[in-house]
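re: ur question from earlier - yeah i can do the single chain one, its not a big deal. heres the input i used so u can compare w yours
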Amino acid sequence: MRIIADLHIHSKYSRACSQELTLANIDLWCHYKGIDLVVTSDFTHPAWFKDIQEKLEPEGNGLYKLKEAASVDGSTNPALSKAEGLTMTTSAVKFILGTEISCIYKQGDKCRRIHLNVFFPEIKNVEEFNSILEKMGCNLKSDGRPIIGLSAIQLAEIVFNINDQAMIIPAHAWTPWFSIFGSKSGFDSIEECFSKFSKNIFAIETGLSSDPAMNWRLSALDNIMLVSNSDAHSLPNLGREANVFNWQEPSYDEFYKTLKNRDKKKFLYTIEFYPEEGKYHYDGHAKCDISMDPTETKKHKGICPVCKKPLVVGVLNRVAELADRNKGKLDNHVPYKSLVPLQEIIAESFNVGKSSKRVQKEYFNMIKKGGSEFSILLDRSLEELKKITVSEIVEAIKRVREGKLHIVPGYDGIYGKVQIYKNDEERGAVQKNLI
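and the output i got, formated as tokens:
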């Protein structure tokens, strides 16, 4: 069975996150998206953990489900179709206990800012974890993603002492400011960050600004699984990156063993942003409207030509700095598929903002007719798509599948700009069926 999993999102209690991020709404939007397994997120926050305890029920396999599932029209459930020989599920969305922790501390005469995703199989593990952090003086009420003064090594010791099948996955591993390999405050290796607990780190999250192929350039990551998640701060961003597993039934044990054993028969592929669209792909300085690829940065010796201050070194440059080969071998790794979220495709096709009423109306019309967003983007043939939407959207989905895009890379906190059609004239030609 194909299981699509998003293992890093946030709740309404995290800073700069939508108040609509409730468990019921997350469950509902997972149906719209076609997500089968989603992380609870933010379980260290007292109010959110109370919601988890009251509104989710255990399934006896380390996963949880909503006690009272949101009312969903049957047409918005993931479609019953065969994709790559696998049957999609229409069962209740499963939740896995997980959260993101921000560790800020000093190590090796350098301030480290590391974000780590932590997973447990049982509620009692979370209760123990939260209790330990509170006793150590950590303020868990301040934010759904708490900032603590513990090192990655100290946090790992706590986590693995609670449950030896708990998992830690470094979040958005290459982001300049808050990640394990970040140019501003990270490390050069997993071992440098986690020391004796490195053997317990089975995976890293590549983040929106890098894709697996970039990470394959590091031989040090050959035995590390590369996962991709949305880090969603709002409901529509759920699943913008995700993981696709092949499990008979989802369970925490399957999740743990798949990553620990690097099981490529059970880990089919990841779903990716085009990395140029991520907001830290290139180097740059947002305040000065300066964006550079690594070659240009080198010419300028890492200095902004406008304000003469250091540029923020982005993911592409940082990967190149640590890489020990030009390309990795595909047969050694889990493959991936690069997509553009459906609302962005519709917005580009209509040449309007993705939050516009026109885009929202067409999005839900397509979900109603096509099953789910992932069913539409991954499974439906072009002929099938022609029956549920207009020609310019069908053509846009075709171009996304083929990677025929024009992207202005993101830098220093600014998302890249995806362009599917070159101009209005080309878009109009599709409408007239001239292309």
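The chain has two domains: 2-277, 341-431. not sure if urs matches, ping me
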